[in-house]
Amino acid sequence: MVEEKWDAIIVGAGVAGSVAALLLARANARVLLVERGHQAGSKNMSGGRVYTHGLKRIFPHFSEMLPVERRVAHEKISLLTPDRMTTFDYRSTQPETDNASYTVLRASFDHALAKEAESAGATVLTGARVDDVLTREGKVSGISIEGETLLSDVVILADGVNSLLGERLKMTQKLTPQKTALGVKTVIELPQNLIEERFQLSDNEGCAWLFAGAVTSGLVGGGFLYTNKASLSLGVVCHLDQLNEHNQSVPEMLDAFSRHALIAPLIRGGRVGEYSAHLVSESGIHGVASKLFDDGVLIIGDAAGFCLNLGYTVRGMDLAIASAEMAAQTVLSAKARQDFSAHALSSYRTLIGESFVGKDMTTYRRCPALLKTPRFFKDYPELAANLLEDIFTVKSQPVEPLLKRGIRHCESIGLATLAKDIIKAARSF
Ligand SMILES: Cc1cc2nc3c(=O)[nH]c(=O)nc-3n(C[C@H](O)[C@H](O)[C@H](O)COP(=O)(O)OP(=O)(O)OC[C@H]3O[C@@H](n4cnc5c(N)ncnc54)[C@H](O)[C@@H]3O)c2cc1C
Question: Which of 314, 326, 356 to mutate to test the pocket of ligand 1 (most atoms within 8 A of CB)?
Answer without folding.
Answer: 314
